[in-house]
Design a protein that fits this description.
heterodimer; A: 246 residues; mainly alpha; B: alpha+beta; two-stranded antiparallel ribbon
Chain lengths: 246, 252
C-alpha cells in the first residue's frame, strides 16, 4: 500500500454548507430557518384567505381578484406566474429540507437509545407538544396533500364535484359545506397549533437566539403564534359550515 | 422506613437483564439513597447473594460518579440534586421505588446500574481544554474577566459530567454536557485561541455517540447542577460561527 501523496486531499472537507448540514446542530438550524419560511407562508396564506369575509367587487368575489393578482405578481417586471413560482419553489424546498432534517434526526435519536427505559418515565420539562412533534407534523403533511388535491389541483373525490379552476370563492364554499372536510381541517389546524407551540419556541434555541432580557417572551410568542394560526384558519371553514359565508 | 425496591439486575453487557424486587425494612429517613443501597447490599452479601453494582465516589454531590434513574427521573425526584445527596425522607414509607441504569447507546451497560461513560471523555479530548505552557503560575487577576462573565463561565463549569442530561433526554442527546464544557472555556479570554476548533470538534465527536437536541429542556431539570439550556443556544450559535470562521483561516 502506497503512502498518501498529499495529506490535504485526505483532510479536504465538504463545502461548509454541506458539512454544516451533515451535523445535527446544522440540521436544527435548517429546521428553524425552513420553519420560519413555512410560518411566514402560513400567515400570508391565512391573511389572504380572510378576503372571503369581504363583499364582492363589481359582482366578482374579492378573493377571486386576489387569486388572479397573485398570478400577476410583479408582472411589469417579470412574466405572469414567474414571481409566484419563485415563491412556490422556495416553499417546496423549505418543506423538503424541513421533512428531511426531521426524518434523519429522528433516525439518529432512535439509534442513540436503542433500548428504552423499562420502567415508567416521569417527564418534568418535556411537554405533550415537544414529544409529539413528528406526529403533529405527519398529520399536518397528510392534511396538506389533501388540501392541495382539494383546492389547488381539483382531484376527485377530494375536491367538490363543482370544482372549477379560478373559481376560488365557489370552490371554497363547496368544499367546506362538507362537514367531514371541515372536521379534518380543524384537526389539522389543532395539530399545527401544537406543532407551533413547541416549534416557535424551539427555533430560538436552535438559532442560538438567547438573551436573558427576552427569554421569557419566547414562550408567549409561541403561544400567540399557535393561537393565531389555529383560530385564524379554523374560523374560515366554520364560517362556511355554519352559513355565515355562502 | 420500609420500602420496596424494583432494581434492574444484569450480569453483563450481553447478558439478559430484568427488574428484581427487594423488600428493604428498617431504613432511616436520614439515609442517602446510596446509603440505602449500601444497606441492601450488606443484607444481600450476608445472604450470599450478589450485591447490586452501582457507581459512586465522593458522595457529596461534586464528583459525578453516581447517578441512576429513580422512578423514571435521572437522580430521582429532587431537582438540582445528585443521587448521593437525595435522602430517603423524600420518599413515602412503604413506597415502591424503581431503579434503572442510564440508557443510551453512548453509555453501554457494564453491570446492573453501572454504565460506561467514557464517551464523555472522547468529547473532552476533542477540545475541552486550553493549551498552555506549564510553568510558574501567572499572577492572580492578570487577565481581566468581567464579573458577570466569570459567573456565567462558572455556572457552566459546575458540570460534573454525571450523564443525567443524556439519561433524561428523550433523544439521548448530550448537548447540555457538551455545551457546558464548550461554554465555560469559550466565555473566558484564555479559551479564545481554540474557540472555533474546540466548538467544531466537540460537537462533531458528541454526534458520533449521542442523539440530537430537540429542545425538550428535560436535561436542565435533570441536571444536579441545574445548568441552563441557555448554554446549548450559545453552542448552536458558536457552531455556525465556527464553520464560517474556519473557512477564512487560509486567508488570514
Amino acid at each position: 500500500m502506497g503512502s498518501p501523496v498529499s495529506t490535504t486531499i485526505e483532510q479536504r472537507r465538504a463545502p461548509w454548507p454541506v458539512a454544516f448540514y451533515r451535523s445535527a446542530v446544522g440540521k436544527k438550524w435548517v429546521m428553524a430557518i425552513t420553519g420560519i419560511a413555512i410560518i411566514l407562508f402560513v400567515i400570508f396564506h391565512m391573511v389572504g384567505n380572510w378576503k372571503i369575509f369581504l363583499p364582492d367587487v363589481d359582482g366578482i368575489p374579492d378573493i377571486d381578484i386576489y387569486a388572479e393578482a397573485l398570478r400577476e405578481l410583479l408582472v411589469p417586471f417579470l412574466p405572469e406566474h414567474v414571481a409566484l413560482w419563485i415563491l412556490r419553489t422556495g416553499l417546496i424546498v423549505a418543506f423538503l429540507f424541513h421533512i428531511h432534517a426531521a426524518y434523519s434526526l429522528t433516525l439518529m435519536n432512535h439509534r442513540a437509545r436503542p433500548e428504552d427505559y423499562q420502567g415508567p418515565r416521569t417527564y418534568i420539562a418535556a411537554n405533550y407538544a415537544s414529544r409529539t412533534m413528528r406526529w403533529s407534523g405527519v398529520i399536518f403533511l397528510a392534511f396538506l396533500l389533501f388540501h392541495l388535491a382539494d383546492l389547488t389541483w381539483g382531484i376527485q373525490p377530494m375536491a367538490p364535484e363543482t370544482w372549477a379552476r379560478g373559481e376560488v370563492y365557489a370552490n371554497f364554499v363547496a368544499t367546506f359545506s362538507r362537514a367531514p372536510v371541515v372536521f379534518f381541517y380543524i384537526v389539522a389546524m389543532v395539530a399545527l397549533g401544537i406543532h407551533l407551540y413547541h416549534g416557535a419556541w424551539s427555533m430560538f434555541q436552535s438559532l442560538g437566539i438567547n438573551h436573558p432580557r427576552f427569554n421569557h417572551l419566547r414562550r408567549w410568542f409561541a403561544i400567540a403564534l399557535a393561537a393565531l394560526v389555529t383560530v385564524g384558519n379554523a374560523i374560515m371553514p366554520l364560517a362556511v359550515l355554519f352559513g355565515f359565508v355562502e | 422506613m420500609n420500602i420496596t425496591l424494583q432494581i434492574w439486575r444484569q450480569d453483563g453487557p450481553d447478558r439478559p437483564g430484568g427488574f428484581k424486587v427487594y423488600e428493604v425494612d428498617g431504613i432511616s429517613a436520614e439515609m442517602s439513597f446510596l446509603e440505602m443501597l449500601d444497606a441492601l447490599n450488606e443484607r444481600l452479601a450476608n445472604q450470599g447473594d450478589e450485591p447490586v453494582a452501582f457507581d459512586h465516589d465522593c458522595r457529596e454531590g461534586i464528583c459525578g460518579a453516581c447517578g441512576v434513574m429513580i422512578d423514571g427521573q435521572a437522580h430521582g425526584p429532587q431537582l438540582g440534586t445528585a443521587t448521593c445527596q437525595l435522602h430517603m425522607r423524600k420518599f413515602e414509607n412503604g413506597a415502591t421505588i424503581t431503579v434503572e441504569p442510564w440508557r443510551a447507546a453512548g453509555f453501554p451497560l457494564i453491570k446492573d446500574l453501572v454504565v460506561d461513560r467514557s464517551a464523555f471523555d472522547r468529547i473532552i479530548e476533542a477540545g475541552g481544554y486550553i493549551t498552555v505552557d506549564t510553568g510558574s503560575a501567572p499572577d492572580a487577576n492578570l487577565t481581566p474577566v468581567p464579573k458577570p462573565v466569570a459567573d456565567t463561565a462558572f455556572d457552566a463549569a459546575a458540570c460534573i459530567g454525571c450523564g443525567a442530561c443524556v439519561a433524561a433526554c428523550p433523544n439521548g442527546a448530550a448537548n447540555l454536557f457538551t455545551a457546558a464544557k464548550i461554554s465555560h472555556l469559550n466565555l473566558l479570554p484564555q479559551g479564545q485561541a481554540e474557540r472555533w476548533t474546540r466548538t467544531e470538534n466537540m460537537v462533531e465527536v458528541m454526534e458520533e455517540y449521542f442523539g440530537s437536541c430537540t429542545n425538550h429542556g428535560e436535561c436542565e431539570k435533570a441536571c444536579p447542577k441545574s445548568i441552563s439550556i441557555d448554554f446549548i443556544a450559545m453552542m448552536n450559535s458558536d457552531y455556525l460561527r465556527a464553520k464560517l470562521k474556519n473557512r477564512r483561516l487560509v486567508a488570514q
